[in-house]
Amino acid sequence: MITVRQSKSFVLLMAMMLLIALATGCGKSDSTAGKAKETLTVATAYDAKSLDPHATNDVASSNVMAQIYENLVALNDKGEVIPMLAESFKRLDPVTYEFKLKKGVKFHNGEELKASDVKFSLERALTPMGASIAHIVGEIDPAGFKIVDDYTIVVKTKVPFAGFLPSLAHTGGSILNEKAVKAAGKDYSQNPVGTGPFKFTKWAKGDRVELERFDGYHGNKPQFKNMIIRVIVEPTNRAIELESGSVDIAYEISTNDLKRVQDNKDLKLLRIMDNSITHLGMNTNKKPFGDVRVRQAISYAIDSKTVVDSVWRGIGSAAVGPVPMNVKYFNKSLTSHEYNPEKAKQLLAEAGLPNGFKTTIWTNDKKERVDMATIIQNQLKQVGITVDIKVMEWGAFLDGTNKGEQDMYIIGWTSQINDPDMSLYAMFHSSKFGAGGNRPFYKNSKVDELIEQGRLMEDSDARQTLYFELQNMINADAPWIYLNAGEQVVGTKKAVKGFVPSPFGYHVLYNVSFDGQ
User: Fold this and answer.
1) Domains by residue range for the chain, with CATH
2) Fewest 10 Å CB contacts: which of 47, 108, 235, 349?
3) Tens of pLDDT, residues 386-406
């Protein structure tokens, strides 16, 4: 039994303990409030296909790889080539380039960057596994490497190539560590090692990639420790996760969610026209698409402006050609192809198809592409073409279109340098069928010839004339029906600072910081 005196002492003791606890708790709370945010979480629409820069050329993979790897050079916001891993570079003659490397740069496995790693990376990109980036590195002379010393390398191209230096800024030009690649073998795509600000820690396929700050990074250290890139396919779910605070940045805000992000005082909406062209491609290796009259008929049967306006409702614009409007030598005189269903029927009759035909459109599960396919399905029905829509997972879609299994398909292509060669060579040269980029399996010997000439020319009025002619020729052949010129629409928390959306479609994330940091 507790006496009265004991009770008073007990109460006094408990009061003192409570005061101590409150004081301690307040101190802890203040400390937490002032603690820097350590994790950046980003919502993206697609999972990466591979984290090996030589094995893929899709934007979703580049969005991750851009945080892990670095290149010899980069492009600034004016599209100018600037040093990255190279301390300096110079052109010794029309086909010879010298790169002097920064000293003391470490890979994530602790190895120091050497000229031998550069040689290994570029040679590896030239092998068959680099088929998807052959348009980036294909003009490098396989016998044209000379290691002067550990920090100096000379690289030759087979011919003078105007786009060589800017092409090296593409993720396909990432520099890998020879030791890490050989140690991982066939599993390297899931165990990437670069020199970038973040190192790979985990990949839960279809869900997320997790990265951790590389404290041995040679440049400015990121202000947060962890990066999580989450795959959230449904666009409204990305917006909801942004609103709730579960993610800090959400890519590809849809038309349905623009207002909710714009009107939220805790969020920011960032927009920039990008270098992508979404198009309906036709496999010219399959009947009846090998007949230019059929392709032209489909072009006349589709009102692409209505398709774009109905689906995108103010995001981007109707595309008019294969070169994006931000890219050098975009032909400003081009207009949207004519919508003329009667002309479409006439051409189909001339091609021996007066009653039309049955076909399929492949698309991945991006809502806007499915919606565009549905409208196109209805428009083609008006001229007698019956279309089934096949919605596919992104990886399966890429694999199938690489192999040429599709009839028609909807996909985007983003030019990741400010040169028209990247918009045209991979897409329309007959040496780049399938995985190389030419998914319509389109072949025109005159187009091949002009593309080959254009990539060798220095910038000039003559080069502009050539690229204008190329755009007109490709439009007349109609292997693509141009749909929308893309726009990057990104939502971020208001507290996010330093994020700048890129017209290339993949974004630098390691410069991000948060209010109070």
Assistant:
1) 44-184 (3.90.76.10), 275-487 (3.10.105.10)
2) 349
3) 999 999 998 899 999 999 999
